[in-house]
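Before the break, one more example. Copy the sequence into your notebook; we will annotate it together after we see the structure.
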Amino acid sequence: MKISDIKQQLKRKDRYSVYVDGKFTFSLGESELINSGLRINHELAKDELESLKQTAVLDKAYDRALNLIARRRRSEWEVRDYMKRKEYDETVTSETLNKLSDRGYVDDAAFAKAWVDNRRLLKSISKRRLAQELRQKRISDDIIQTALNNDEADELGVLRELIAKKRLQTRYQDDLKLMQYLSRQGFSYGDIKTVLEEDD
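Here is what the structure looks like once it is written out:
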């Protein structure tokens, strides 16, 4: 078996299609292609070709995972779930996650901190609600606790801000409706009562 051609892909300029005996056989990213030392007319033994095909699967999986986390940070569980939906086996998934972790692209502690910081920028939100959202991303309780301990937001201050905003809406002039809403947002009854009494 012989490599008959190596072509740069049209849609992905950083990936190359490798042809063996005139047929497309696999694709590799630029760095993986360079590392492999492949060239046109290179003779391949059967086991060498199988090894290259496995390298190509891992390379493609890593490339897909990188594209996923390029849009926003992801928890390890989110990447694992994505790989499962793409029907990669456990070996490929684990190797991909190890590579991403080694390079600092997947880190649940950094993810939790970024999640808390970003949510604080976007809206008034309780620590309880933040913890709930992080649990949905399968972040461990220890990491969640650390992220929330490092969160400098004042829970009562956040609550005051939210109440002031909601009081501008007609439906939240009623204290009971407002309390129910705030409770659904994860604020404790005691904190809600304390801040509402400040208004009286």
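The mean pLDDT is 90. The beta strands are 3-8, 15-20, 23-29. Try to locate both features in your own notes.
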